[in-house]
């Protein structure tokens, strides 16, 4: 017998690395096996022919080969690897079994089924536009997406809104099996929530408060995705809701710009009037308060002076009653002391004198008296 006949059925080749190579190898061996049974006997013609093999023996060999194939396939599929950004969801006989972290793991062949879910990747949905070349210099296409972006505000104005929803997978099992099409559910709910919130706001409020609107949309969208009941959860965590562009539609932009310019002019005039008001009114109020306070001060001064003069007169009257001559003389001297310094000329008249009395020049006398010696 040749060396080829002494080789085992599997040959001397290396072990196949993939299931496809295993199947191809088995098919070749089966073809060689059945072709060997039909070969004519070798040697001279004196040897008796071999008896044909039983068909049940061939079936047994086929079953053995199939069993070996199933065992190898089961061993190959028993181990699986989960990358760092993924988790594995294992079902056993169609029922949830466990969630596996990144690493190398084992599962029962033909009983367990593995689903890999990327939980680190940030997914996004765009509304009202599509990114054509994402990167540092992204380009966007808004043509044909008017049905997503056109909305009606509370004051019956049409507005064009484009926004982005970014999300990650929070619950892999719910993401895979709770909702049939999670992506479409996110798109439908995002449109519904955004249209309802924008529809409850005025046009000017939507234009100037996009951050508040984005926060409201994110909060309500997360509540809708979580669902009112556990069986309605999608396993999605909303990361960011960002309004990219909020503008009036192109056909009404000229009219909108005119209205906006008129509104800016009105605000400018109002601000100028407010500035004039803030400059004039406080000054007038301050002057009014100043006059009022001065009036109150003058009133208090007159009253206090009157009370002081009255008290002074009463005191003098009391002293006058006690000593009339002395008091009269003192009052006369005090009066002269106050008057004479302001008098330029003094004439002294004596009733018994017939000729005029010479002029008493008090001013000159006081001047001479004040001169330094």
Give a topology summary:
Elements: H1 3-6, H2 19-37, H3 55-77, E1 79-82, E2 86-92, E3 95-100, E4 103-106, E5 112-118, E6 123-127, E7 130-131, E8 140-141, H4 146-149, E9 150-152, E10 158-169, H5 172-177, H6 182-199, H7 203-208, H8 210-226, E11 236-247, H9 253-322, H10 324-339, H11 362-370
Antiparallel strand pairs: 1-4, 2-3, 2-5, 6-10, 7-8, 9-10, 10-11
Helix pairs in contact: 2-3, 6-8, 9-10
What would you note in describing this structure?
This protein is α+β, with helices and mostly antiparallel strands. Among the domains are: 39 residues, no CATH class; 126 residues, Tetrahydropterin Synthase, Chain A (2-Layer Sandwich); 91 residues, no CATH class. The chain has 11 helices and 11 strands. Strands 6, 9, 10 and 11 form a 4-stranded antiparallel sheet that branches. Strands 3-2-5 form a 3-stranded antiparallel sheet. It has a two-stranded antiparallel sheet with strand order 1-4. A hairpin with an 8-residue loop joins strand 7 and strand 8. Helix 2 runs antiparallel to helix 3, helix 6 packs across helix 8 and helix 9 packs across helix 10. The longest helix has 70 residues. It is rod-shaped. The N terminus is likely disordered.
* Distance between the amino and carboxyl termini: 168 Å
Name given to the CATH homologous superfamily of one domain: Band 7 domain
Count the beta strands: 11
Share of helix, binned: 40-55%
Order of helices and strands: HHHEEEEEEEEHEEHHHHEHHH
Strand content: 15-25%
CATH class (first level) name of one domain: Alpha Beta
Query: Count of helices?
Result: 11
Please tell me what the overall shape is: rod-shaped
Largest sheet descriptor = 4 strands, antiparallel
């Amino acid at each position: 017998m040749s060396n080829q006949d002494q080789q085992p059925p599997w040959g001397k080749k290396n072990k196949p690395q993939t299931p496809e190579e295993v199947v191809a190898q088995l098919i070749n061996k089966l073809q060689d096996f059945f072709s060997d049974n039909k070969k004519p006997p070798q040697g001279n013609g004196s040897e008796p022919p071999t008896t044909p093999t039983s068909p049940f023996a061939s079936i047994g060999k086929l079953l053995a080969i199939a069993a070996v194939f199933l065992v190898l396939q089961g061993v190959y599929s028993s181990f699986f690897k989960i990358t760092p950004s993924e988790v594995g969801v294992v079902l056993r006989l169609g029922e949830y079994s466990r969630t596996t972290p990144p690493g190398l793991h084992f599962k029962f062949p033909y009983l367990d089924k593995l689903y890999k879910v990327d939980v680190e990747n940030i997914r996004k949905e765009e509304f009202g536009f599509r990114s054509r070349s994402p990167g540092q210099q992204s380009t966007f296409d808004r043509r044909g997406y008017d049905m997503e972006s056109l909305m009606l505000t509370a004051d019956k104005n049409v507005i064009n809104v484009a926004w982005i929803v970014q999300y990650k997978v929070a619950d892999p099992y719910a993401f895979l099996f709770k909702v049939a099409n999670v992506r479409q559910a996110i798109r439908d709910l995002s449109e519904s929530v955004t249209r309802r919130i924008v529809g409850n706001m005025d046009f000017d409020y939507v234009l100037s408060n996009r951050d508040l609107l984005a926060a409201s949309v994110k909060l309500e969208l997360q509540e809708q995705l979580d669902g009112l009941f556990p069986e309605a959860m999608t396993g999605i965590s909303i990361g960011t809701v960002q309004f990219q562009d909020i503008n009036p539609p192109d056909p009404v932009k000229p009219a909108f710009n005119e209205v906006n310019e008129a509104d800016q002019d009105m605000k400018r005039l109002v601000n100028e009037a407010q500035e004039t008001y803030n400059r004039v009114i406080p000054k007038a109020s301050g002057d009014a308060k100043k006059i009022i306070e001065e009036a109150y001060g003058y009133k208090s001064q007159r009253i206090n002076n009157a009370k002081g003069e009255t008290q002074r007169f009463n005191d003098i009257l009391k002293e006058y009653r006690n000593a009339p001559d002395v008091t009269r003389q003192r009052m006369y001297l005090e009066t002269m002391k106050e008057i004479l310094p302001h008098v330029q000329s003094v004439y002294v008249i004596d009733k018994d004198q017939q000729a005029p009395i010479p002029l008493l020049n008090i001013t000159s006398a006081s001047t001479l008296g004040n001169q330094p010696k």
